[in-house]
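Running co-folding for zinc ion.
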Amino acid sequence: MNTTENKYACIMHPEIQGKLNDKCSQCGMFLTVSVPEKPEKLDSNGKKLNHNRNN
Ligand SMILES: [Zn+2]
């Protein structure tokens, strides 16, 4: 299904994301900062490959 559901993040903790007015698990504030949708095909980090086990 294609639901255009916006994500929201905590203003203090951008990594904490959820629905609007969800509570941040870190500080308990409401998630009110809208998070722009990121296309999953674009790797902004490029270092997220966990298939490499160098030891
Ligand atoms: Zn927070």
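Result summary
The radius of gyration is 15 Å.
The mean pLDDT is 82.
Job closed.
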